[in-house]
Amino acid sequence: MDTISRENNSYLPVAGVIVGVLALVLAGVALAKISSAKKELGAQIEQQVSKIDDAEGKAASAATAADKANSSVNKLATDTQNAFTSVAQELGNIRGEITKVQESAKAPVKAGKAGSKEPAVAGPDEYVIKAGDTFAKIARAHGTTLADVQAVNPGVDSGKLKVGQKIKLPAKK
């Protein structure tokens, strides 16, 4: 046997017990420290989870507000388009009416219909045909030539003049 075990037989078991007890005490302290650290860490995790839950709630609220704003913008765009369409239709109607007025201002006044009770009225540089009128008679009566009367009335057949029909007279020179 070796010398340590022979000489100090009584101290070796006692030292082993002391080391074992110290190990148990250290293990208990370590367990207590780990337990308190776990509680501290658990509290911090709870705070972080709470913050994440708050952020999630705010994000959901912001998403709802964004959806509502998007819906409002879409409605405004639709209303604006409808307003522009309505204005465009009204402008088209007005343009049509203006065109009609311009065309009626350009069109010569037509003689009264046969059997009409109202007599035809000649405007400036116009003449209303009477019974027995010819282009030659009208030209002589107004101091112009037959060719000039025919030139300002190219669509009128001088052989088919009707009573009450209006013709143009050439400008006086």
In terms of DSSP E residues, the strand content is: under 5%
Dominant shape: rod-shaped
Helix count, per DSSP?
Answer: 4
Number of domains: 2
What is the SS-derived class? mainly alpha
The share of residues in helices is 55-70%
First-last Cα distance? 162 Å
Radius of gyration: 58 Å
| Strand neighbour order, sheet with most strands | 1-2
- Spans of 5+ residues with little confidence (pLDDT < 50)? 111-115
The helix/strand order is HHEHHE
Provide structural commentary.
- This protein has 173 residues and is mostly helical.
- The chain has 2 domains: 3-91; 109-173, Membrane-bound Lytic Murein Transglycosylase D, Chain A (Roll).
- It contains 4 helices and 2 strands.
- It has helices at residues 3-7, 11-106, 135-141, 146-152; strands at 126-128, 166-168.
- A two-stranded antiparallel ribbon has the order 1-2.
- Helix 3 crosses helix 4 (146-152).
- The protein is rod-shaped and about 170 Å long.
- Residues 111-115 have low confidence and may be disordered.
Short synopsis of the structure:
This protein has two domains: 3-91; 109-173, Membrane-bound Lytic Murein Transglycosylase D, Chain A (Roll).
Key traits:
single chain; 173 residues; Membrane-bound Lytic Murein Transglycosylase D, Chain A; two-stranded antiparallel sheet; 4 helices; 2 strands; 3% strand
Helices and strands in order:
Blueprint: H1 3-7, H2 11-106, E1 126-128, H3 135-141, H4 146-152, E2 166-168
Antiparallel strand pairs: 1-2
